[in-house]
């Protein structure tokens, strides 16, 4: 697969699993998962062996791609997908869906064809119906799948008892393009030339009356008229001689009939210019990712024996997309935060990084989310971002605390040594202790200036030193008192020494 979800060759999208039930292939789902831009989905349906895959290769602008078969055996199985850059719409992907040919009796499972047809209708924004020859009653009878859509597709989750749901089909169905291949007739009504669209509309005209035959005749016609608002028809002459058609993939443009080439180009340009971006009920445009999810929702409904319902599918799709949107947005937020933060850091800087990352995360959420009208998932995302941010703030505090503690140990090492050496347990020691505490605190502050936990760590430390400070002070005071006492004593004794001895009363004064 090339970058950006574009592919060098088609892959199988939907096929039968080993139990014979439809399933979405992982490879295709993964490709769509990586495609976060709006998609224009064009699918081709029609009877087997009618040149559908060849026409799709032309839409891809490639000579080869979807496999063609030149034998009578049907070639394409299930639904194949090819994502190519949209030739006209920048930022859009053209998703081409080539389907298994309908009506091959050897398959023996009519219902399988019905589901292939339904899925093509449900997944595309333009449905190309491909047939050989002319649009006559037989051709319309072969298109009976369109008459079965009412039984096999539901639009609303809740339907009133007498409500005709098919009236809603026109709102949600793709545009319809009939490609008539090997058309050999002249487009004329009487003498007047008519367009291929007039030809189609003429073929879809209803008969008056209510006989069973008339009802039967009108049924596919009225279904096409009532379900598909935009209808278009292209007629293609034979592209080459009989023998050459077995090797169509090898034929150069020059070897193809010029009239065929002209029609093929007109058809391709019509599709490029007019096929709309795929939307779902409610008008929401969908991306490749959503298309993959939508396919899974419809296929799951069919697998479990239910009728695919557009409204339910949108609800399921919204849930899948929104859960994913929360995951992706949160992932981006966390990655952004981890890449930019360097703990410990200034909380204001951290807050700035958080704000930018949060904005980017919300942008991702908005691009991936789907119908989050009550902002339930966005609120969930904001809550998760808040939790992540709080955790990061806590980690920032912890990292800052650790660094401050390291500096603290380093700076106050002298003080601790002084304490254990009992250097402060001497007279005047308390003042020395206080001075040292003050000086080291300043040094610590200078080294942890930018740290958020600087003061908190210091004040906790100083608190632990209060007892020892008091002890030193008391010791100092008692040493002072003892010294004072000793000094007093010394002074007294010295004074006593100096004082003349209490003399005996002079008895012989005249000696
Ligand atoms: N007669 C005719 N044959 C064509 C035309 N385009 C392609 N073919 C040939 O018809 C054969 C079948 O073409 P595919 O494109 O494989 O037909 P398909 O409808 O995809 O066939 P399945 O996948 O089996 O349903 C190939 O040999 C093609 O070369 C065409 O316009 N007219
Ligand atoms: Mg095919």
From TrEMBL:
Domain (GB1/RHD3-type G) ranges: 36-276
Gene3D superfamilies tied to this protein: Guanylate-binding protein, C-terminal domain (1.20.1000.10), P-loop containing nucleotide triphosphate hydrolases (3.40.50.300)
Hydrolase listed as a keyword: yes
Region of interest: Disordered: 475-511
Molecular function, one GO term: GTPase activity
UniProt record, GO biological process: innate immune response
Keyword annotations: GTP-binding, Hydrolase, Immunity, Innate immunity, Nucleotide-binding
Biased composition (Basic and acidic residues): 491-504
Family according to the record: Belongs to the TRAFAC class dynamin-like GTPase superfamily. GB1/RHD3 GTPase family.
Protein name: Guanylate-binding protein 1-like
Organism whose genome encodes this protein: Sinocyclocheilus grahami (Dianchi golden-line fish)
């Amino acid at each position: 697969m090339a970058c950006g979800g574009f592919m060098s060759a088609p892959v199988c999208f939907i096929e039968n699993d080993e139990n014979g039930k439809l399933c979405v292939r992982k490879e295709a789902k993964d490709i769509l998962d990586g495609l976060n831009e709006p998609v224009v989905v064009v699918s081709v349906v029609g009877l087997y062996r009618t040149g559908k895959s060849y026409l799709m290769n032309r839409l891809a602008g490639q000579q080869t791609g979807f496999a063609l078969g030149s034998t009578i055996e049907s070639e394409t199985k299930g639904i194949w997908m090819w994502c190519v850059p949209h030739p006209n719409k920048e930022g859009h992907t053209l998703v081409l869906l080539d389907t298994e040919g309908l009506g091959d009796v050897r398959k023996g499972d009519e219902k399988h064809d019905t589901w292939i047809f339904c899925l093509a209708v449900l997944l595309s924004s333009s449905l190309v119906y491909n047939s050989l020859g002319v649009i006559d009653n037989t051709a319309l009878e072969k298109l009976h799948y369109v008459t079965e859509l009412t039984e096999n597709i539901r639009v609303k989750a809740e339907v009133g008892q007498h409500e005709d749901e098919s009236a809603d089909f026109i709102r949600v169905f793709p545009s319809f393009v009939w490609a008539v291949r090997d058309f050999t007739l002249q487009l004329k009504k009487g003498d007047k030339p008519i367009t291929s669209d007039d030809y189609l509309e003429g073929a879809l005209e209803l008969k008056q009356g209510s006989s069973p035959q008339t009802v039967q005749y009108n049924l596919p016609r009225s279904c096409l008229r009532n379900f598909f608002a935009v209808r278009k028809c292209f007629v293609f002459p034979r592209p080459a001689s009989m023998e050459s058609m077995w090797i169509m993939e090898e034929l150069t443009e020059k070897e193809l009939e010029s009239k065929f080439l002209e029609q093929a180009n007109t058809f391709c340009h019509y599709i490029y210019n007019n096929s709309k971006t795929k939307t779902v009920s409610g008008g929401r445009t969908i991306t490749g990712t959503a298309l993959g999810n939508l396919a899974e929702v419809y296929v799951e409904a069919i697998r479990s024996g239910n009728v695919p319902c557009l409204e339910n599918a949108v609800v399921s799709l919204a849930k899948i997309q929104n859960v994913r949107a929360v995951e992706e947005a949160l992932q981006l937020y966390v990655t952004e935060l981890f890449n930019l933060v360097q703990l410990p850091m200034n909380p204001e800087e951290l807050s700035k990084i958080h704000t930018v990352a949060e904005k980017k995360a919300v942008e991702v959420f908005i691009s991936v989310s789907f119908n989050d009208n009550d902002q339930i998932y966005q609120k969930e995302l904001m809550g998760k971002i808040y939790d992540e941010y709080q955790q990061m703030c806590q980690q920032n505090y912890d990292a800052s605390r650790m660094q401050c503690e390291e500096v603290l140990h380093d700076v106050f090492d002298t003080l601790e040594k002084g304490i254990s050496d009992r250097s402060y347990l001497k007279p005047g020691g308390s003042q020395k202790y206080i001075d040292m505490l003050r000086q080291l605190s300043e040094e610590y502050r200078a080294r942890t200036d930018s740290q958020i936990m600087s003061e908190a760590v210091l004040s906790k430390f100083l608190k632990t030193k209060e007892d020892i400070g008091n002890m030193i002070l008391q010791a100092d005071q008692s040493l002072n008192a003892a010294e004072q006492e000793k000094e007093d004593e010394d002074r007294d004794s010295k004074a006593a020494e100096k004082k003349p001895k209490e003399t005996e009363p002079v008895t012989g004064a005249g000696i």
